[in-house]
Every structure is written in C-alpha cells, then in structure tokens.
Write a structure and sequence with these properties.
The complex is a heterodimer.
Chain A: E1 4-8, H1 19-30, E2 37-41, H2 48-53, E3 58-64, E4 74-77, H3 98-107, E5 114-120, H4 133-136, H5 139-149
Chain B: E1 4-9, E2 20-26, E3 29-36, H1 44-48, H2 56-60, H3 68-83, H4 89-119, H5 128-131, H6 133-154, E4 163-164, E5 167-168, H7 174-201, E6 215-218, E7 229-232, E8 238-239, H8 245-248, H9 272-279, H10 285-293, H11 306-331, E9 345-353, E10 356-364, E11 370-376, H12 378-397, H13 402-415, H14 420-423
Antiparallel strand pairs in B: 1-2, 2-3, 4-5, 6-7, 7-8, 9-10, 10-11
Helix pairs in contact in B: 3-4, 4-6, 4-11, 6-7, 7-11, 9-11, 10-11, 12-13
The chains are: A alpha/beta, B alpha+beta.
C-alpha cells in the first residue's frame, strides 16, 4: 500500500495558476520520487481531490496560492494554519477552492492523517501556457523542497 | 394594489453552462416567460472538418467534461458506420462497460451534488456535510467509482484516450476488471442507501405533470444506452439512427443561441425519464425493485422525476456492469489490434448520454478526411420542452410568492440535468 499521495493542482492555460501541475510533472519525469509516493496531476481539482485522497495516510498538495509574498516565493503549511478568503463566481464546476474541499473532507472524516500544502505565490494568473520567469526560475527549488518533504532528498 | 412578478435568474446555478430564466407578470397575467440560453457557439462541427477520421473522437470528446465518453463513442460508432469498420464482441462489451461508468458518475454527480440540496432546502452540498455526512460520503464513493471505471477502461476519467475506431488502443487487464467488480459489488448497498434517502425525500419533489413526448433508444437486447434505434412514446414508429435528422428537426428561436428540437409535437423530452418510460421492461431486477420503491412508474410525465429515474439507472448500470465483467472474464481478454480500411463514406450513430440521446454524423473523403459533421446534443433537444413546461407550470403557481416561483423553475431546469455549454451549436444570432 502506498502511503503518500502527491497532488498537483492548477489550470495549465492560466500561466502561474498551473504551477502545481508543472511541478508534479517535473517530479514524475525526474524519477526521484520514492516508491511509496503516488503523484497525480488533478488539473483544476474540485471534488476529485476527495477521491484521490481516499486510502492514503498523507496527502501533499502543490498549488498556486495568493499569500501576499513576492512572486515565486513558496510556503509549506498545514490546512489549519490558513483560511480561505477566495471569492468564487460559483458559476462553473471547474472553479474550485482546495481549502473548501479540505474543509469538506474534515467534516466527512475523509482527511488523511497528515496534510501538507505547498503554496506558490504567482506573478500572473492571466491566460498563458507557460509559467512566468519568476516561477520558472525556481522550479528546481520547489522540487527539492517537496523531495525533502517526501524523504527523498 | 397590483402584484408584479419580475424574475430574472441570470445563470441558473448547479447546472453546467449558462442558462437564464425570465418571467414578468402583472396581476397574474404573464407578459414574458422565457428559458434563455446565452452561451457562445463553440464550432466543434467546423473544428473537425479537415481532420483525419482517427482524430475525431479526441476532438469531440472535449465538447463535454461530464459526458466525454459518450461523445467519443458516438463519434467512433459513426466513423465505423461510415467506413464499415467491424468490431468484436469483446470491444462491444468493454465499450458498454466504459459507458456505464460515465452514466454512474454523471447521474450521481447530478442527483447527489446538484439536486439533493434542493430537496433538503440547502443551496449546495456543502451544508449537507454537517447535517447528512453519511449521504455525502455515499455520494462521493459512488461518484469516485464511476470515475474509476472510466480510468481503468478508457485510460482517463475524462476525455478518454483508449477508445478508438475499431476497438481499444489499450485493453484493461483481468486484474483491473476483478478490482472493478469488487468495488461494484460493494457499491450495491451504498446505492440502496442512496435510494432510501431519495425515497424519503420524494415528498419534496414538486407535483407537476404535463403530457409529453419522450424519445430514447429502443430495440436493444438490454436496457438501451449504447445500441438500438430511435423510439417515441407518441407512436410505435421506430426510426433508424441513420435518419436522426428526421427526429430532431432542429430550429432556432430568437432568445437562445442553442438550437431547439421537435418531432411529433412542439417539443419532446430526452434523458433518464424518457429511457425509463420507453424501456422499463428491460431493467435488471434490483433496478426494477428500486423504481417500484421510489414510486416511479412507466408513463410518468413529471419532469422532476427525471432525477429519480437517474437513481434507478444508477442501480441498473451497476447491476449490468457486474454481469458484463463476468462475461468478459469468462470469455478471456484477447489482444485485438484496432484496424480500419480507409474509404469514403457517410455514417451516423446514436448513444444515450446521461442527459439523453446524442447523435453524431460524419462524412469522409477517400483519404479518411472529415468533410462534414453534424452533432445533435440532448440538452438542445430538451430546451423546447423546458420552455413548454414553464408555460404550463408558471400560470399554475403565478399567485405564489416570487421566490417560490423562482425556486420551482430553477428546480425544473436542474431536473433536466442540462449541460448547456455542450448544447450551444453552430449559430450566429442577434438578440432583439
């Protein structure tokens, strides 16, 4: 049984919004993830996050996060250390909020024992298929931090 | 003092895509009553022109994230029809199994996440986590199972990659199928629990009924989702899917960017209730029992019961999936290379999407390049019926509180499980 699920979230068509997905693919391509880690590209996420966490003791999320930090900076935190202030349009099933999904999981007793979020401050979430330079230049740093967290660095 | 009703729901929530409700009435006299679809056209039929036959299903699956398997299968069947590409019994069984996964995923999404909050007086599924956690957990488990079926069989839960003309680009293993069977067997008591919840909430389903023409696939060996011809509750007439344009009779109206449809009357309804009304005799035993427990009977003309019919169909696809897996495993999974001899031709096909019958037609030149495409989406076929339901129902409730009228109308739209973004079509209209 694999114990950790590593989930990259984001929309690849909205520049830095897709950073979580970019990082997960980079880690998968690196071949450096430990054997007990399942890495998933969940795209915009939503309720499929609940499905993906099922049966794992630990979930690690990588997502774009507005945290009032300089673009490209990242923070590692647990869900209880932050609260969502996101205002959603509520007109699309594609629009999700990880913090809300984690709240749901808590209420339903479906949250893994350990949850860690790697939030990465974007420079732009406007339409675009590439990361901005501020984030692209730090891709190595993000991967190293996550590999440390999963015990492979 | 005069009473004015002025409802303008700008984008109904808990449906996919954008649809508006507009009502204006003074002293019970209705001056305006419209179901409006303001989505932009998406040009998929134009996008596939000039593309090779083997790319079509990949493009058109993007019409919808919820029924991408259905769009892929309709395209593939139409391509196979156009080029006389044979398929094996194994392919047929595996496709049906994949399609069942999508029916389950979509129906549970609709009933569990979008409709149940209405019946429990909540605005979304989120408050139900506190009040009904067991129900939400069942819904999540069943939704996950539908996704898992598509992942194991089609390679992805959305926008399948293994479904191709002639067969499968990659086959599931016997281990995959045994794992799915185990999960399906475990899902049966969860479905029974969900059906019980819905039965307890049935009192909240509005009592509205209007004589309606129902249209769905018929003439298949089992409850039809994937095979069959087109049938109607209005007559014994059965139309070949190759002549589907004679059924859908598409037309345009000023207040909608989507095309509307009509056949024997001004409108008709497609979807789970239509399938049930035409094919209930073919339901598997537990699905039949569930229908009976939920009070769903053939001939039901209450569109709100479409969601109840979706619960019955969820049971049906789980029951049939277990049987199908046994049939596939007993026969043994054999490697089969999908093959096609490219030739010019025109073909059409129909597959039942979760929200109703879906038609695809393609024409190819001698190099297998698509030169023409025509797609008729279930939600388009339902738009006129939603409007006709509004016209019958709203005068009956126009004296009630405006919020109540609005809620009943929103619930009616949601009962159709519309996928409005799919339903927009190649059109160019101007609102007046």
């Amino acid at each position: 049984m694999k114990s950790t699920v590593l989930i990259g979230l984001g929309n690849l068509l909205m520049s830095d919004e897709g950073v979580g997905v970019h990082v997960v693919h980079a880690l998968l391509n690196s071949g450096r993830l430990p054997a007990d880690v399942v890495a998933l590209d969940l795209g915009p996420g939503g309720l499929t996050v609940l499905h993906a966490m099922t049966g794992f003791a630990r979930a690690i999320f990588i997502d774009c996060a507005f945290m009032n930090l300089p673009a490209g900076e990242w923070r590692q935190f647990q869900p209880e250390a932050a609260r969502t202030v996101k205002v959603r349009g509520r007109q699309s099933l594609h629009e999700g909020d990880l913090m809300e999904i984690l709240d749901l999981a808590t209420g339903l007793n479906r949250l893994p024992n350990e949850v860690v979020i790697f939030g990465i401050q974007p420079a732009s979430v406007e339409p675009g298929e590439r990361l901005t330079a501020a984030l692209q230049n730090k891709m190595g740093e993000y991967q190293t931090a996550i590999l440390q967290e999963v015990g492979s660095a | 003092m005069s009473k004015t009703v002025d409802i303008h729901v700008h984008h109904v929530t808990r449906v996919e895509g954008h649809g508006n409700i507009r009502v204006r009435a003074t002293d019970g006299v209705i001056e305006k009553l419209e179901w409006q679809v303001p989505e932009a056209p998406r040009f998929f039929e134009a996008m596939v022109r000039g593309r090779k036959y083997e790319d079509i299903q990949t493009v058109v699956s993007r019409i919808c994230g919820i029924c991408s398997v259905t769009h892929s299968l309709a395209a593939i069947k139409a391509i196979e029809n156009a080029m006389d590409i044979p398929i094996s019994t194994q392919t047929d069984r595996l496709r049906i199994l994949t399609h069942y996964g999508e029916q389950l995923e979509s129906h549970i999404l609709h009933v569990g996440y979008l409709v149940t909050p209405d019946l429990l007086g909540q605005k979304s599924v989120v408050p139900l986590v506190g009040s009904h956690p067991d129900v939400v957990n069942v819904v999540i488990d069943l939704h996950r199972l539908g996704n898992l079926m598509m992942e194991k069989l089609a390679g992805r839960k959305t926008h399948p990659v293994r479904l191709v003309p002639g067969g499968f680009a990659m086959l599931p293993t016997a281990h995959d199928l045994r794992q799915l069977k185990g999960e399906l067997v475990a899902a049966v008591p969860k479905l029974e629990a969900l059906a019980e919840v819905v039965a307890n909430l049935a009192g909240g389903v509005p009592h509205f009924s209007r004589e309606t023409e129902f249209v769905a696939l018929v003439n298949a060996p089992t409850y039809p989702f994937y095979h069959g011809d087109v049938g109607t509750t209005d007559s014994d007439e059965i139309v070949s899917v190759l002549d589907f344009e004679n059924v859908v009779n598409e037309y345009v109206v000023a207040h909608s960017t989507a095309k509307w449809s009509k056949w024997h009357r001004d409108s008709y309804m497609v979807g789970a209730l239509a399938r049930f009304n035409l094919n209930a005799d073919y339901l598997a035993p537990l699905a039949k029992k569930t229908a009976s427990a939920l009070g769903l009977e053939q001939g039901c003309c209450n569109p709100y019961m479409n969601s109840v019919a979706q619960v019955v169909e969820s049971v049906q696809v789980v029951e049939r999936s277990i049987e199908l897996i046994d049939e596939i495993l007993t026969a043994g999974i054999e490697y089969q290379r999908p093959e096609a001899i490219i030739q010019a031709g025109c073909g059409a096909a129909a597959v039942e999407a979760p929200r109703g019958i879906l038609f695809h037609r393609y024409e190819f030149d001698e190099n297998g390049i698509c030169v023409r495409a025509n797609i008729s989406i279930p939600t388009n076929q339902n738009h006129a019926n939603i409007q006709k339901d509004f016209e019958e129902m709203v005068p009956q409730i126009i004296d009630q509180d405006q919020d109540h009228i609005r809620q009943q109308m929103e619930m009616l739209v949601r009962a159709y499980d519309p996928c409005i973004s799919c339903s927009t079509h190649y059109l160019d209209v101007e609102f007046v």
